[in-house]
């Protein structure tokens, strides 16, 4: 129980630390302004208002979550290392792995809280606009969360050897490559060498487009529980693997 | 009770194999209830040594034991309190909130936690600002908070990295008093410092590092006695003499150093009493007045500077 208790302590502290910072409230404020804007735009649009509301609302939520994940991922460990606060913590009876998991889970909690709030707002907006309650938006929120956990784990891994600006570039690359399909890569890259390299990256990097269920949300398609279960397991395993790899590197890193 | 709290044998650390060693065969011991100062110029390897003692980075070779345990072990860390050099503490938290977090990492029981937090804050004189955010704290207050967090687990060993660095004289005195109190309580303390005068007031033992090597490990007392014979004893005199500086200097033997001149008053540094007698014999009949006279004591700073200078020359010769 001891290691779990320590991970819990660090994650709780990390989460509180984020709650004390202004950027979280700025993101919430921006989200509120964005949702209000599309809600009122929708009133004047007579063609398929529900679809447009869901489409723009869901995309907006997705983009805000990417921004939050990138911000948390590139600053979380780097700030602790640069400020030397990490030495104060690691001088106490806690291993580097427990510390890493704690920091990671603290950031995950923050992302989860944001997604819950944004999903609630979007669900309520759709309900007030159409009078229907749809579970698909909640499943969409879950998929966004699973995707962000994988991206966050990668950003933690990169932050061990990349500066924050480089980490940002690497993070954006993961998001873009992860969301592209093989056929699209083939279509946009002419050189066979570049195609081969992109395919190689695609094999080792996560397939983020599995988490994109936007069309099912917009068109009210049925989302099967088995699909949700498979994507959950995929995200869980991938995240676990990357964080384990990060902890191995951290254990041997000369801080 | 374990007599030797810190034991370092042939410790070597390379950050990358091709680069120069940050530490080369460092060997020393610190006994229980002693205060040991790690001294050395910038880049000597003090912080690297401290990181290894805390188990934050592994050594390339050699052995380190803290209370007979590996420094990376939980059991060893439970007995250590650490103050980092120029530490940053998350500034949106209050001292109480942060101390609760640190106490959680030591698995201190909930009932005991609040009492300990109260006690350490009282010890460093921060109990009245316990609910204020750390962003409102001065550097000296942050350093005292740093001491409070490292006392939370009632450690047997305190490792302090530059505890007086960047503080004003009052701040340095506060930290010095806290260290002296802890020394009185029988804690073993290891600290690195650039403030040699302050270090001299609190330490029992000295380890001097230069370019990653141990140059000296001795008790302060032995070192002072030993070096007193090697280094010249100085005498400082303040003399009032009604003449211009050039005229006054003509009266002085070449070896006498004029440290400070203000109008007709001169501060002089002489090597011994004999020289002082002969100079006073010349100056007093000509209308000069002796304002003050004191024998300058050899300090840790004199010894340190001499050692660093000698070692530097030796290195140049060997190259």
Sum up the structure in keywords.
heterodimer; A: 255 residues; mainly alpha; 11 helices; B: 319 residues; alpha/beta; 6-stranded mixed sheet; 4-stranded antiparallel sheet; 13 strands; 38% helix; globular
Question: What's the short story on this structure?
Answer:
The complex is a heterodimer of chains A (255) and B (319). Chain A has 255 residues and is mainly alpha-helical.
Topology:
The complex is a heterodimer of chains A (255) and B (319).
Chain A: H1 2-19, H2 22-43, H3 49-82, H4 85-90, H5 96-130, H6 136-158, H7 164-179, H8 182-188, H9 192-204, H10 214-218, H11 225-252
Helix pairs in contact in A: 1-5, 2-3, 2-5, 3-5, 3-6, 3-7, 5-6, 5-11, 6-7, 6-11
Chain B: E1 4-13, E2 23-31, E3 35-39, H1 46-53, E4 61-66, H2 74-77, E5 80-83, H3 95-105, H4 110-123, H5 139-151, E6 157-161, H6 169-184, E7 188-192, H7 196-202, E8 205-210, E9 213-219, H8 220-230, E10 234-240, H9 245-251, E11 257-262, E12 265-270, H10 273-283, E13 289-296, H11 300-318
Parallel strand pairs in B: 3-7, 3-8, 5-6, 6-7
Antiparallel strand pairs in B: 1-2, 1-4, 8-9, 10-12, 10-13, 11-12
Helix pairs in contact in B: 3-4, 4-5, 5-6
What does this structure look like?
- The complex is a heterodimer of chains A (255) and B (319).
- In chain A, 81% of the residues lie in helices and 0% in strands.
- Chain A contains eleven helices and no strands.
- Chain A is globular and about 60 Å long.
- Helix content of chain B is 38%, strand content 26%.
- The two termini of chain B are 47 Å apart.
- In chain B, strands 5-6-7-3-8-9 form a six-stranded mixed sheet, with helices on both faces.
- Classes of the chains: A mainly alpha (255), B alpha/beta (319).
- Chains A and B meet through α1 and α4 of A and α3 of B.
């Amino acid at each position: 129980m001891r290691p779990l208790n320590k991970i819990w302590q660090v994650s709780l502290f990390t989460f509180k630390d984020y709650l004390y910072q202004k950027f979280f409230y700025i993101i919430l404020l921006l989200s509120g302004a964005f949702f209000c804007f599309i809600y009122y735009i929708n009133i004047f649009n007579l063609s398929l208002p529900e679809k447009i509301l869901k489409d723009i609302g869901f995309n907006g939520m997705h983009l805000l979550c990417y921004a939050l994940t990138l911000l948390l991922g590139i600053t979380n460990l780097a700030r602790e290392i640069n400020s030397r606060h990490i030495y104060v913590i690691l001088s106490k009876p806690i291993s580097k792995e427990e510390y890493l998991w704690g920091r990671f889970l603290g950031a995950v909690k923050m992302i989860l809280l944001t997604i819950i709030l944004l999903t609630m707002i979007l669900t309520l907006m759709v309900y007030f606009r159409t009078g229907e309650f749809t579970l698909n938006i909640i499943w969409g929120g879950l998929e966004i969360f699973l995707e962000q956990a994988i991206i966050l784990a990668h950003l933690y891994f990169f932050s061990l050897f990349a500066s924050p600006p480089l980490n940002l570039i690497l993070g954006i690359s993961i998001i873009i490559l992860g969301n592209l399909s093989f056929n699209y890569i083939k279509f946009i890259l002419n050189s066979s060498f570049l195609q081969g390299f992109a395919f190689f990256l695609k094999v080792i990097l996560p397939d983020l487009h599995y988490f994109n269920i936007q069309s099912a949300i917009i068109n009210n398609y049925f989302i099967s529980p088995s699909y949700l279960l498979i994507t959950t397991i995929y995200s869980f395993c991938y995240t676990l693997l990357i964080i384990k790899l990060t902890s191995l590197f951290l254990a041997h890193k000369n801080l | 009770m374990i007599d030797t709290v810190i034991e370092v044998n042939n410790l070597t650390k390379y950050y990358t194999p091709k680069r120069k060693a940050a530490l080369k065969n460092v060997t020393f011991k610190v006994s229980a209830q002693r205060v040991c100062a790690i001294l050395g110029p910038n880049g000597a390897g003090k912080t690297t040594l401290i990181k290894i003692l805390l188990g934050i980075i592994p050594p390339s070779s050699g052995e380190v034991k803290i209370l007979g345990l590996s420094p990376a072990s939980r059991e060893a860390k439970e007995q250590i309190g650490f103050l980092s050099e120029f530490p940053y503490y998350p500034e949106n938290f209050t001292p109480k909130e942060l101390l609760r977090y640190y106490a959680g990492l030591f698995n201190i029981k909930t009932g005991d936690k609040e009492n300990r937090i109260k006690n350490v804050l009282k010890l460093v004189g921060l109990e009245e600002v316990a609910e204020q955010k750390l962003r409102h704290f001065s550097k000296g207050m942050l350093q005292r908070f740093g001491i409070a967090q490292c006392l939370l687990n009632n450690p047997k060993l305190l490792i302090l990295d530059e505890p007086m660095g960047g503080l004003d004289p009052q701040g340095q005195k506060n930290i010095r008093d806290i260290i002296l109190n802890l020394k009185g309580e029988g804690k073993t303390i290891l600290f690195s410092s650039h403030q040699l005068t302050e270090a001299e007031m609190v330490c029992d033992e000295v380890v001097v590092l230069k370019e990653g090597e141990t140059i000296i490990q001795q008790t302060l007392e032995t070192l002072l006695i030993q070096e007193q014979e090697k280094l010249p004893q100085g005498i400082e005199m303040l003399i009032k003499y009604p003449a211009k500086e050039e005229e006054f200097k003509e009266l002085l033997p070449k070896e006498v150093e004029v440290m400070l001149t203000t109008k007709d008053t001169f501060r002089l540094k002489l090597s011994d009493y004999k020289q002082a007698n002969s100079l006073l014999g010349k100056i007093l009949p000509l209308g000069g007045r002796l304002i003050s006279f004191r024998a300058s004591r050899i300090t840790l700073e004199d010894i340190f500077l001499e050692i660093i200078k000698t070692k530097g020359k030796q290195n140049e010769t060997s190259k």
